[in-house]
Amino acid sequence: MPSENPYQLTGDEIQAPPRNFFGMLRYLGPGFILSASIVGSGELIATTNLGAKAGFVAAWVIIFSCLVKVVLQLEFGKQAIYSGETTMEALNKLPGLRIGRAHWSIWAWLALMTLKLFQVAAIVGSVALIANIAMPALPATAWAPIIALVTSLLVFRGYYQLLEKGSLVMMGLFTLLTFASVRVVQFTDYAFSWAESMRRSHPSNPKAT
Questions:
Q1: Helices 160-185 and 140-157 sit at what angle, rounded to 10 degrees?
Q2: pLDDT tens-digit readout, 60-83
């Protein structure tokens, strides 16, 4: 017997939306996981690398890309919740070219996900390097498969509450460390002002205009 579709909406499962702030807090779990999942190697590695090379002149690229990505992912999530369809099912109903039984956007997604394997590998490798710094008894090459295996088991077993709470903690730490880094850099030779961030400055000479 085929398994029941977990996304299928039924009338007895629809709940009234919360009407106060504390009521909304009870339903932030999916948002926490989504927010944690969109912070990947792009934000953690490519962004800092680009900023170090180009300075504030490239800040608009970072901000714009993050805004676009968040808006699109939120719309995909709302569509899945509202319709009871997965994102792939919704894309497959779009008009336009079809290749075989699937819409062209499905094949484009498949090609993109193939490339994203390299991004996931970069994230796992970065975490392995950090684990090696914290616990150098194991080399990074040994940490990488351990981290990949633990992550796969967490997703496979569906430890939702653990992922939710872990995502909340990591997001909070990430935000605090980001603001702390901006504050601490003000006490170094690379201190900058708001006015300077609006001008085109080179990272090797922060005071240049």
A1: 130
A2: 877 787 788 778 877 887 888 777
User: What does the pLDDT average to over 108-117?
Assistant: 86
> CA 193 to CA 40: how far, in whole Å?
28
User: Which residues make Cβ contacts (< 8 Å) with residue 53, sequence separation at least 6?
Assistant: 203
Q: Using one digit for the tens of pLDDT, what is the confidence trace for 135-185?
A: 999 999 999 999 999 988 887 887 777 777 777 788 788 889 989 988 998
Report yes or no on whether pTM surpasses 0.85. Answer: no
| Cα–Cα distance, 78 to 71 (Å, whole number) | 11
Closest CA to 79 of 153, 158, 4, 7: 7
CA distances from 150 to 87, 108, 153, 167 (A): 27, 30, 5, 15
Q: Which neighbouring-strand residues pair with 103?
A: 98
Mean pLDDT of 42-69: 75
**3-state per-residue secondary structure call for the chain:** CCCCCCCCCCHHHCCCCCCCHHHHHCCCHHHHHHHHHCCCHHHHHHHHHHHHHHHHHHHHHHHHHHHHHHHHHHHHHHHHHHHCCCHHHHHHCCCCCEECCEEHHHHHHHHHHHHHHHHHHHHHHHHHHHHHHHCCCCCHHHHHHHHHHHHHHHHHHCCHHHHHHHHHHHHHHHHHHHHHHHHHHCCCCCCCCHHHHCCCCECCECCCC
